[in-house]
What does this fold into?
Amino acid sequence: MLSVQHLAVAFGGRTIIRDLSFEVHQGDTLAVIGPNGCGKTVLLKALLGLIPYEGSIAWSPGMRLGYVPQKIAADRQMPLLVRDLLHAKARFLKLPPDEVDLVAKEVGLTAELLEAGIGVISGGQFQKALIAYALLGKPNVMLFDEPTASLDELEEEHVYELLEDLQTRRQLTILLVSHDLSLVYRRANVVLCLSKEKPCIGPPEEILTPEVLEAAYSKPLKYHFHLDQHAEDSASAKEE
It folds into this structure.
C-alpha cells in the first residue's frame, strides 16, 4: 500500500527526519511512536504531500486518503453546524446528498448532534465529526494524528473502538500517531519508533520493550503491567 524510501525532511537547516524507509501493507494498523519533536506529525504531513521532502513516497494506485489531524486551526466558536462542516466537503467532492447522513450514522452522529454547533459539542463528539469528515469520499487509508489527545479516558476508548469497527467494516489500512503505548500494543500490528538515533520498525512485541523504548526516549522509563479480568482471576487462583 505504501513504500517509503530514504525519506528526509528538514526545516530551517534542522533535519527532522533522516533516511527513513518502511512499508505498509493492506489492512495494517501502523502506529508511529517516539518522543516529542522526533517528527511524528511531520511524517504524516510528508505522506500527505503537505510539506516538501527528499526521498521517495509511493502509494499504490487507486489510493484514497483520509486524514484526522491532532488539532484544527479553525475557531470552534464560529457559528458552524456539524452538518454544515460535513456538507461543505461533500459538495467539494460532488458526493450524493445522502452521503453525509450515511457517514454520520456510521460513526454515531445523531440527528441532534448534526444540528449542533461545533463549539458546543464535547471533545469526543467533535472527534467523531472529524472522523466522519475524513470518511467522506470513501478512503481506503486513514491517517490519525493523536486522535484522542484532548479526550478523557472513556471518550478515548470509545474513539478507538470506533476506529477498530471502521477498519473491520471498511477494510481500512490505518496509520496512527499515539503516545499511549498500551493502546499501541493492543491495537497495532506494526510499530514505527522514531527517535534521534536510528528509527526501528516491527511488531509491538519487538518494539515495545524496555531496551528499545529507553534507547528511543533517551531516559529510563517506568512500566505498568495491566492484566485483563481473565488474567487477574487466573493469577488469584494461582495465589490461592
About this structure: The beta strands are 2-11, 14-24, 29-33, 54-59, 65-68, 141-145, 173-177, 190-193, 200-202.
